Amino acid sequence: MSQPTAAGDSAPATMRAVVVTHPGGLDALEIKDVAVPVRKPGWVRIKVKAFGVNESEVTTRKGESDAEVTYPRIPGIEGVGVVDEADEDSGLRPGQQVATMMGNMGRSYDGAYAQYVTVPAGQVIPFETDLPWDVVGALPEMFQTAYGSLTRGLDLKMGQTLLIRGGTSTVGLSAATMAKEIGATVISTTRNSDRGDELRAMGVDHPVVDDGRIADKVRDLVPQGVDAALELVGCTALPDTFGCVRVHGTVCFTGALAGGWSIPYFTPFMIPSGVQLTSYAGEAAGLPPQVFQQQLQAIADGRLKTPVAKTYRGLEQVRDAQADVESGTTPGKHVVLLDG
Fold this sequence. Notes:
It is built from nine helices and 15 strands. It has helices spanning 55-62, 133-137, 140-153, 170-182, 196-201, 215-221, 238-242, 289-300, 318-327, and strands spanning 14-20, 29-35, 43-53, 78-85, 97-101, 116-120, 124-126, 161-165, 185-190, 206-209, 226-231, 245-253, 276-279, 308-313, 333-337. 46% of the residues are buried.
């Protein structure tokens, strides 16, 4: 059996965490003193430094997630921090900077809205950076989804044209900066005409106002159709997105900001002849450590932009963060920074 490493600093017996004891409104997010989680063999205990706040956690708090979620539950599908304890053969050492995400954390087991979290070693991504914790805390889930969609989902290449449907979402903003780093021309949508400058600031070449029907607007920019389209709005927009893509181009379905996850009475003939449809739903393994390290360096060098909307200090501001995420009025990532 694997032996644990010694913790960098002896973990206390208790910690502060945000706990949802039962589904409800913002008042269901309660700060409690709970036991520090005991690490199981093959798992890693992380001292949390920062975590992003996501729409899926709002869903968990409301009780609208699937049956995998049980209560009471500490939410949080992602976090960054330092290793507190790990198996000797894990390749991880106490004090090492790491990120973690997905894998049902914050859903079927406790997540990152806490001072400590334990996760399977396979969903831990080591890195080294001097970037502030609130910047790094914005990245894991957002970058994993954007990177996986562009690479595995779309196989985007230099010189291609990319349409991002749902461009002011955190994944959409991240995908725009990554696509520009790859060397693509980016068309990105927003429902609000006032947000065109925000998209341009993230590197978008052509902001497009989305009124539900954008195919003609996109074809005015690229008459033959775009090479690739990242669908983040959902199945309600998918038929129109198909109309934006060239023959032998690809649409990658990654998200459903408008809530449409399925198409009633679907038939393959809904897909235009010659257009390809794929999807992306990744885990931590979808963001290799070397890629995450390269992205951190690109941020440090100023080549990659981080769409951070707001930083909140301490667990006491988690309710504010979730309220802001739920309102949807501020594009970008909402990050909670922990002390210590």
